[in-house]
């Protein structure tokens, strides 16, 4: 039975639950549940702090886990775990910030106190950039208050919209330390039974979220032009209609291009143009 670690709370938890449900796995109904078995799919879910998931997977206690790339790297598990798949949600940027106008570059942080919740990640980054701070101040939360409260000169934190920093009178500066998103991680070099099915299902959800199915009728004389607009993943499906001058076409189209494609098809004379959601797919 495949043992999967899932974030137990927060936005990462909700999005992880959604993608697993879309992939056909049962999920807990009570947030107090710490372990849940899905016997039909032969998997067992363990609900853990997102920050701890990489440690359990790297140590071999669990086979795979859904967590953030920033949390995975901050855990400093070395080569014992590896990133298997990017999941496309919970995107954020890890950046330096300080009171507006105080610093402009990474070099300004030499000899300064930097507060963060990601000690390992920050320490590795600064070493790689040959910057020696006075010290790294660990905080479990509310990092943006560290400067105003006098415990740090600057901070390094995950930034999504930047509104919280601005409210605290802070601005980001320098280049981003890293970009993060939710990922699937596993034990390095190991392929436990059921992992291929999990990966295939998750990849199917990711594709289904990005595409819609377009159906339309078009005159045969315009079929080549219409097919160029909707080439699909391999090629569109063409079906004859009772009226031999017309055919029905079905093809996958990127969701963010859907309306543009429908307009182009209409201009070519296509009619009965229908876009429908894709709930599951196997590539």
UniProtKB/TrEMBL annotation:
Pathway assigned in UniProt: Amino-acid biosynthesis; L-histidine biosynthesis; L-histidine from 5-phospho-alpha-D-ribose 1-diphosphate: step 1/9
InterPro entries: ATP-PRT_HisG_long (IPR020621), ATP_PRibTrfase_cat (IPR013820), ATP_PRibTrfase_CS (IPR018198), ATP_PRibTrfase_HisG (IPR001348), HisG_C (IPR013115), N-reg_PII-like_a/b (IPR011322), N-reg_PII/ATP_PRibTrfase_C (IPR015867)
SUPFAM superfamilies (UniProt xref): GlnB-like, Periplasmic binding protein-like II
Locations listed in the record: Cytoplasm
Co-factor(s): Mg(2+)
Molecular-function annotations in GO: ATP phosphoribosyltransferase activity
Enzyme Commission number(s) of this protein: 2.4.2.17
Family annotation (Pfam families): HisG (PF01634), HisG_C (PF08029)
Recorded catalytic activity of this chain's protein: 1-(5-phospho-beta-D-ribosyl)-ATP + diphosphate = 5-phospho-alpha-D-ribose 1-diphosphate + ATP
All copies of domain Histidine biosynthesis HisG C-terminal, residue ranges: 208-279
Keyword Hydrolase: no
Boundaries of every ATP phosphoribosyltransferase catalytic domain copy: 49-203
Family named by the database record: Belongs to the ATP phosphoribosyltransferase family. Long subfamily.
UniProt-recorded name of the protein: ATP phosphoribosyltransferase
Organism: Citricoccus muralis
């Amino acid at each position: 039975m495949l043992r999967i670690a899932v974030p137990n709370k927060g936005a990462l938890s909700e999005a992880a639950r959604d993608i697993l449900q879309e992939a056909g796995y049962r999920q807990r109904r009570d947030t107090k549940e710490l372990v849940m078995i899905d016997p039909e799919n032969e998997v067992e879910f363990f609900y853990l702090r997102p920050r701890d998931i990489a440690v359990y997977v790297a140590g071999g206690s669990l086979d795979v886990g859904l967590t953030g790339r920033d949390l995975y790297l901050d855990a400093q598990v070395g080569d014992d775990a590896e990133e298997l798949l990017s999941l496309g949600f919970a995107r954020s940027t890890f950046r330096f910030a300080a009171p507006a106008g105080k610093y402009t570059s990474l070099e300004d942080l030499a000899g300064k106190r930097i507060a963060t919740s990601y000690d390992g990640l920050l320490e590795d980054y600064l070493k790689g950039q040959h910057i020696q701070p006075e010290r790294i101040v660990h905080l479990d939360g509310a990092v943006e208050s560290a400067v105003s409260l006098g415990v740090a000169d600057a901070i390094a934190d995950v930034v999504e919209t930047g509104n919280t920093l601005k409210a605290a009178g802070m601005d980001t500066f320098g280049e981003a330390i890293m970009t993060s998103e939710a990922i699937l991680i596993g034990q390095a070099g190991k392929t436990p039974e059921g992992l291929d099915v999990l990966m295939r299902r998750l990849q199917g959800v990711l594709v289904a979220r990005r595409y819609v199915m377009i159906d339309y009728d078009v005159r045969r004389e315009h079929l080549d032009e219409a097919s160029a607009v909707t080439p699909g993943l391999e090629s569109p499906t063409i079906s004859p209609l009772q009226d031999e001058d017309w055919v029905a076409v079905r093809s996958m189209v990127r969701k963010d291009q859907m309306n543009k494609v429908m307009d182009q098809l209409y201009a070519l004379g296509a009619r009965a143009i229908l876009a429908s959601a894709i709930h599951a797919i196997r590539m």
